[in-house]
Amino acid sequence: MGVSLVFKSLLIANRGEIACRVMRTARKLGVRSVAVYSEADAEALHVRQADEAYLLGPAPAGQSYLDLEAVLAAARASGAEAIHPGYGFLSENADFAEACATAGIVFVGPPPAAIRAMGSKSEAKVIMEAAGVPLVPGYHGEGQEPAALAEEAERIGYPVLIKASAGGGGKGMRIVEAAADIEAQLAAAKREAAAAFTDDRVLIEKYLERPRHIEVQVFADQRGQAMHLFERDCSIQRRHQKVIEEAPAPGLSPSQRADMGAVAVSAAKAIGYQGAGTVEFIAEDERFYFMEMNTRLQVEHPVTEMVTGLDLVEWQLRVAAGEPLPKAQEEIVLMGHAFEARLYAEDPERDFLPATGRLSHLSFPDASASLRVDAGVETGDAIGIHYDPMIAKIVVHGRDRATALGRLADALARTEVVGVKTNLALLESIARHPAFAAFEVDTGFIERNRADLFLPMEALSPEELACACLAELLHGRALAEARAAASGDPTSPWNDTSGWRLNAETQRRLVFLEGENRHEAVVHYRTDHFGIETGDRTLRATGRLESGGRLAFDLDGRRGRLTVVWRDRELDLLFPGGVRRLVLFDPLSAAEEAEAGSGSLTAPMPGKIAQVLVSEGVVVERGTPLVVMEAMKMEHTLAAPARGRILALRFAAGDTVEEGTEIVGFEVEEG
Ligand code: ADP
Asked: What is the pLDDT of residues 258-288, one digit of tens each?
């Protein structure tokens, strides 16, 4: 397939990794890239990589990336012939697709009618049912009377799953185990749906106990041709959202694959689809059912690219430009196996609460034919509160599943992130878990294997502590040397860097804090090494700091290297078992912190109060949900840290809170 100029310039109405990824293909095709950005993204990677960039507005997406007029104005100003919406933001907004057409700009996506048809889960089901596509037993009608819905739930049989018709991102979904709970859960789901999607309609499905999420990548051109590019298994999920995806789906027979592909193609044809789309199925035992269709490029499209050797963004651009599908169904060959792991700034220990912060260090293994990293950030960039907290996608390929899985584990082990909490350790434990290797995969995988996947940090070993000391000593020495050189009097005793002290004191106590733990060592300054005494051992330590924050160490003859990242008194040491954050103990600031201790509940991150669940004066048990906060498009519940009394509620639903603000005044009750 020769490279031809599909468009002269393309505006990418998105940010982060997907904007960078679309630009990569644009560059390959000789298409000029136009980026758009919010004030928060002025220095972002996608802006730096574009040929041209336009400011849309303030940080909140509603005033920037979701502002359809602002995006169109940028397109007009830049003379872009087409707009690629990426995923999220305006990608499934039929009004936007329509406005593009009116403005004479090509929307790289399906026709507005197809977006509308699939925009509501209920309407999508009506269309799919008529096209003969299998559906999960359930109810997706117009009637929304609670009593009638409860009757439908009874007919379907418990447990059932309530979903928001207009839903997405796992929001507004509720599992109901028994008839006694249906009324309350319906009300709650409707409230949630109304708040999130300004549409409180719901549908009910049979809740499958151990399902797999399998989706088919489809493609259709403007000439009525449609085909599929095989399937992806996205069953490894947390909070009903994907974490690791793979292609092909393990254990699917060629005939099942052909069946699913054919059903997906007929679904696409049923709505006059064009471009890239994904038909999502939920599968249990030998059966599969239609769940929904996403009328855009998916986050996980790289696994399909890896096993087919195709560039899906190139296909999107060609089809949008009016070209026929580049290949015929028979020409698409499945080659080997691929995995994608989504690296998120989040805290798996706290129910995957999104995390924010500056990436003081971010490094990935080198890309190759079998390893691809799609990232939208680099060292020094910040993960903020306004957008999705995904840092990168790590994608691997291998001749078979076992080979690919080995590469995934290895790539994750060689990925380094410092500055924000991430799910990296969890991803690596999944990749190394025997049940995952043995295909024992369904959407309950993470919860079921929690005990194996959430491993507590092991105690800091004497060698690790010695490395921390060595890093600190060498770092201190380097700073002192720089200071001495700058002062012009390197021979002054005040600029001596050898560890010589007044009173001939040639040893020093180093104390590091790690969360609740305290690590202590005594360092003896020797002529050509440090003696580092930890517990009952003294290690003979030498080393040097290399470029990129690498520490080369020698401990009693054992040599190695590790990355160390400094931030004031904080050291992040990237050991093979994970990042250890140690803080050099400073008795003065410690005294201040001790004084600030109180029984209050504070916002773990900036956000909005969604719901207040208790009233002032009541006594609650440990773990009782008190306040629901919404931050970074996710809900987070603040729970009572112990049995205690609610002294004060400082905010109401709808209020915005800063990180660290006290939300609930709380008093621990004894006994
Ligand atoms: P959303 O659009 O909010 O992401 P989906 O309908 O795509 O919601 O479902 C998201 C996930 O929820 C699925 O991948 C699956 O894990 C789970 N799920 C959806 N429907 C069912 C069901 N009927 N039974 C069990 N789990 C389900």
From this structure: 999 999 999 999 999 999 999 999 999 889 9
CB crowding 141-180: b at 16 or more within 10 Å, else e = eeeeeeeebbebbeebebebbbbbbbbbeebbbbebeeee
Looking up tokens 């990042």, which residue turns up?
579
Query: Average pLDDT, stretch 370-384?
Result: 96
DSSP characters over 129-175: HHTT--B-SEE--S---HHHHHHHHHHH-SSEEEEETT--TTTT-EE
Report the distance separating Cα 646 and Cα 38, nearest Å.
Answer: 40
213 CA: nearest ligand 1 atom = 14
pLDDT of 611 over the 90 cut: no
* Atom of ligand 1 minimally distant from the CA of 291: 6
Question: 205 C-alpha vs ligand 1 centroid, how far in Å?
Answer: 10
Q: How confident is the model at residue 592 (pLDDT cuts 50, 70, 90)?
A: very low
- 164-191 pLDDT tens trace: 999 887 777 999 999 999 999 999 999 9
Q: Is 567 helix (H, G, I), strand (E, B) or coil?
A: strand
Cα 247 to chain centroid distance, Å, stands at: 19
Task: Give the chain's mean pLDDT.
Answer: 91
Catalytic residues: 296
CA of residue 120 relative to chain centroid, distance: 25
Please report the pLDDT score of residue 366 as a whole number: 97
Give me the count of residues in the chain: 671
Helix (H, G, I), strand (E, B) or coil at 290: strand
> Is residue 5 classed exposed, middle or buried when 0-12, 13-18 and 19+ CB atoms within 10 A define those classes?
exposed
Ligand 1 midpoint to CA 357 (Å): 30
Cα(170) to ligand 1 centroid in Å equals: 7
Pocket of ligand 1 (CB under 6 A): 136, 161, 163, 167-171, 205-208, 211, 213, 237, 240, 280, 282, 291-292, 443
